[in-house]
Structure formats: structure tokens, C-alpha cells
UniProtKB/TrEMBL annotation:
<dbReference type="GO" id="GO:0035861">
    <property type="term" value="C:site of double-strand break"/>
</dbReference>
<dbReference type="InterPro" id="IPR052709">
    <property type="entry name" value="Transposase-MT_Hybrid"/>
</dbReference>
<dbReference type="GO" id="GO:0044774">
    <property type="term" value="P:mitotic DNA integrity checkpoint signaling"/>
</dbReference>
<dbReference type="GO" id="GO:0044547">
    <property type="term" value="F:DNA topoisomerase binding"/>
</dbReference>
<dbReference type="GO" id="GO:0005634">
    <property type="term" value="C:nucleus"/>
</dbReference>
<dbReference type="GO" id="GO:0042800">
    <property type="term" value="F:histone H3K4 methyltransferase activity"/>
</dbReference>
<dbReference type="GO" id="GO:0003697">
    <property type="term" value="F:single-stranded DNA binding"/>
</dbReference>
<protein>
    <submittedName>
        <fullName>HTH_48 domain-containing protein</fullName>
    </submittedName>
</protein>
<dbReference type="Pfam" id="PF17906">
    <property type="entry name" value="HTH_48"/>
</dbReference>
<dbReference type="GO" id="GO:0015074">
    <property type="term" value="P:DNA integration"/>
</dbReference>
<dbReference type="GO" id="GO:0000014">
    <property type="term" value="F:single-stranded DNA endodeoxyribonuclease activity"/>
</dbReference>
<dbReference type="GO" id="GO:0000793">
    <property type="term" value="C:condensed chromosome"/>
</dbReference>
<dbReference type="InterPro" id="IPR041426">
    <property type="entry name" value="Mos1_HTH"/>
</dbReference>
<dbReference type="GO" id="GO:0031297">
    <property type="term" value="P:replication fork processing"/>
</dbReference>
<dbReference type="GO" id="GO:0006303">
    <property type="term" value="P:double-strand break repair via nonhomologous end joining"/>
</dbReference>
<dbReference type="GO" id="GO:0000729">
    <property type="term" value="P:DNA double-strand break processing"/>
</dbReference>
<feature type="domain" description="Mos1 transposase HTH">
    <location>
        <begin position="9"/>
        <end position="52"/>
    </location>
</feature>
Length: 91
């Protein structure tokens, strides 16, 4: 079966193509699907994405944030003094 959020995005894309506002689209979907609908912020973000001519309905996600420290360095520090707290390691 198709992902329910993908189907919601298809409804949003349809509303966008009909020049429906994101607020009106959110209200309509909320009335029909109750709490199973995307949040108002998500609806707004999808409309913004469609405005940039990205007609893809795939959720690209956020991805992982870049690492600020190398795992090897952290591992060496922990091995040198395993009793350190996370607060001490953060400094």
C-alpha cells in the first residue's frame, strides 16, 4: 500500500496546481482526515517547495547534520579517561 503521507503530498500538489492557498488546503485535509493530516507547518513547507518548481512528491528528509568532531578523536579521549562525564567531554 502507498505511504499515507505520500498521498497527502499528492493532495497538496493538486491543491497547489489549483491555486488553493496552503491554509485552505490544510483546513480541507484536516476536515477530511482528522488528526492523520500533516501539520500546518508541513503543508506550508510543501507549498513553498512546489513554488520553487520542485514537483517531486518524495520526502527528501533533513539528512544527518555534519559531524563536529571525529569519532576517532572522541574515542581516544574517552579511552584516556573513561570516568569523564559528557559535560566534561563537551568542553
Amino acid at each position: 500500500m502507498t505511504d499515507p503521507k505520500f498521498l497527502m503530498r499528492a493532495c497538496l500538489w493538486y491543491d497547489f496546481k489549483k491555486h488553493t492557498t496552503s491554509a485552505a488546503s490544510f483546513r480541507t485535509l484536516s476536515e477530511i482526515f482528522d488528526d492523520k493530516v500533516l501539520t500546518q507547518t508541513q503543508v506550508y513547507e510543501w507549498f513553498e517547495q512546489f513554488k520553487t518548481s520542485d514537483d517531486s512528491l518524495e520526502d527528501n528528509g533533513r539528512g544527518n547534520p555534519p559531524q563536529t568532531i571525529h569519532n576517532d578523536i572522541l574515542k581516544q579521549v574517552i579511552e584516556s579517561d573513561p570516568s569523564q562525564t559528557t559535560r566534561e567531554l563537551a568542553q
